[in-house]
Design brief:
Length: 150
């Protein structure tokens, strides 16, 4: 179960927003003891239809978690998100429902500190509750990850 607060219902950082976007991001993780992990990734979305969204990610990592520096593509992820309904609850709140499926392909090598060693599929469902006065959006999602390859 996860909860996310976003600035507005159609903010691109909201996974249930009906918008097209693409971000290039960099994250640095201090793993302590002199080790680190750097993650450079593309994260984006494209609306295939008004009620169907395709989200995608591609991650490239560099880490010295095992004592030597290894770099390579870690994973790619594709998510299809279907929005069955959107309606006002009252004068202040609206709700949007979502059902989806995420497919993650792992390119990494766990012995090098990159990747998990398995591909995964993850069905999910949730709702976005948006406050029309403040722009606050709360998104409770339930997601189940299942390993599909060893």
């Amino acid at each position: 179960m996860a909860g996310i607060a976003a600035g507005a219902e159609e903010n691109a950082s909201n996974p249930l927003a009906a918008v097209n976007n693409m971000d290039i991001r960099y994250q640095y993780f201090d793993l302590e003891g002199g080790a680190d992990r750097q993650d450079v990734f593309i994260d984006g979305a494209y609306m295939l239809r008004p009620d169907l969204k395709l989200k995608y990610e591609l991650h490239y990592n560099s880490t010295n978690a095992t004592g030597a520096r290894f770099s390579g593509f870690e994973k790619t992820s594709l998510k299809l998100i279907y929005f069955p309904s959107q309606k006002p609850l009252n004068d202040t709140w609206t709700v949007k429902s979502a059902l989806g499926l995420e497919w993650t392909l792992d390119f990494g090598d766990p012995d090098e500190g990159i990747g998990t060693g398995s591909d995964q599929i993850a069905p999910f469902g949730g709702f976005a509750f948006a406050n029309t006065n403040t722009g606050l959006t709360l998104i409770p999602l339930v997601k189940h990850f299942h390993r599909i390859m060893a």
